[in-house]
Sequence to fold (243 residues):
Amino acid sequence: MGRLPKKGVDYFPHDVFASLTPTLFTIQQEFGNDGYAFWFKLLEFIGMQKGLYADFSNEKDWRYFLSIARVDREVGEKVMTSLAELDAIDRELWQKHRVAWSDNFAERLASLYCRRGTPLPTKPEFEETVQDGETQQPKPADAKKTRKKKPTEKEEDDKVKYADYVSMTETEYKSLVERIGEPAAKKCVEVLDNYKGSTGKTYKNDYRAILNWVVDKVQKEHPQLFKKDFAPEGDGGNPFDDV
Fold:
């Protein structure tokens, strides 16, 4: 019997300097250790969900999470509001639908989903349904991906296709080559191209996606391709970084 598909993830990175990053430092200043614990318990809760987001529009689910976080309703609401204002979670999703989603948290798990061979969950999209003149509770739109702004014509003209599913500006590619060397750059393009082609995943910027997780994956698997003086930055799309 084959292995059952996982519902969410079993773990996620926790940087040793997390408490010093602007977003989490601010939360701690406002709410003390309760704010620190709340944030990581929220990420744990999100990580257990199939879609990598927490839907607290249901009162029962919200009360359950508050019991996990060990804070009262007033503190919980204030922390979530601050996280949304700091863009640690998506502001619109929280304010309109009481849904907690973090772009950076999801992106940081991209390499894990790549190894699984399954698509990385995308930001949930909601639709308002109207029936008999009444607006119903919004539900996540099925099989839809986040609406993204269309790039300008100039941005499209500047992009060069380096593979079927990977495009960058010449400046971005040259910067990548200078940073890691051309053999490693070509391998990174190949890895990202295979991942996007097999999963249907799209990125706002392929160059940033490569820096975010592909470089780390390729370096671990093909270290001989990299320049001898290459030193990884190790940011990995930190979900605690200020925006």
